[in-house]
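Progress report, Aim 2. The chain analyzed during this reporting quarter is listed below.
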Amino acid sequence: MNLPERQNTTTAEIYKWYAAKPQSHREHLGASLIGAECDRYLWQSFRWVALPQFEGRILRLFNTGVREEARVFEELRGIGVELHTHQDGKQISCRDTTGHFGGSVDAIAKGLPEAPKTWAVVEIKTHNAKSWADVKAKGVADSKPRHYAQMQVYMRLLKLDRALYFSVNKDTDHVYTEWVHHDESASSVLLGRAESIISAAQPPAKLSEDPAYFGCKFCDFNAHCHQKKVATVSCRTCSHSTPGADGTWNCNVSIDSRKLTKGQQERACEKHLFIPPLVPTGAAVDAGEGWVEYEMPGGKTFRNGEAYLTSRELEIAPQEVIESPQIAEIKAAFPGARIEKVTPVRKRRNAKDLSAMAYAPLEPYDPAKRIPGDPMDDDIPF
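Predicted structure tokens for the chain:
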């Protein structure tokens, strides 16, 4: 007899433990992303349009890759390689001239058998058997262009000419290493792409208009590009903030155009005003001091602004709530009223739409038709 697995198992608790750990945005546009196919994906990642949420099992899988690094470091040192993983107590990092693009390398090494006198970037990746076999057969540039682009950026920013791609098969523990040369032309294109993403005030075009397209189907931003989901509120999705020098962000509605901390960017303020394309509920048709007006497909309009529908309200409210006349009436009657929570109404299975049913008109009461002795007869005799 096979009993169903209990939900409160050790496995479930471990996954919950991983899922409960805080997940936060990366402050910079990462070199690990720059080889992605879609410019809009890169822009939305950099602008914190949404924070991808991963289940506990996936987070544990990510952690497996991190733990593998320590093993590889031990192995490389074991064969006599000089290895550096940290600088001033922190992981070795690099940034471009804007301060908004770059990443953290796994290690810098010298004494590798491929070129014992050459310093090289070390990039460690774990793969399942199928992915690992593909890398070995095709090489990293063709099989994993994002990994290749990541190494090209690191070599460019660290002024190194070589990189060691160290790939581990998680299923069999086979190892494949590849010696990668710096391609100045390729790295220049990648840095130029990063600069255009960082400086863009509006999101680039979609990769495809088809939500089922492979590059869109499993994207973290599928709902925002194809299902009219409004972006998450943060300073990076606000029309008032812009990326500044040395990786900073500035607000142009504050008195001193202060440089925003990461915490301030994540919290945002009540003056938040969405970058118009991040409100796919409608099309921007007008704007004024502190507000943008949108027109929905049916012709109704609404305004995003502190005195109208705030960005936090737009983030949680579906279109039917936004266009509801009751919402406008409540806000007019109670200035400062805010939508705090939207609870979807659950429809009963096989429930009928009573509003569409036809009812026979009620006949006027005729005492002559009363049935004598009827226990339901409530005609009072006085």
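The longest strand covers residues 120-127. The CA atoms of residues 201 and 220 lie 21 Å apart. These observations will guide the mutagenesis work planned for the next reporting period.
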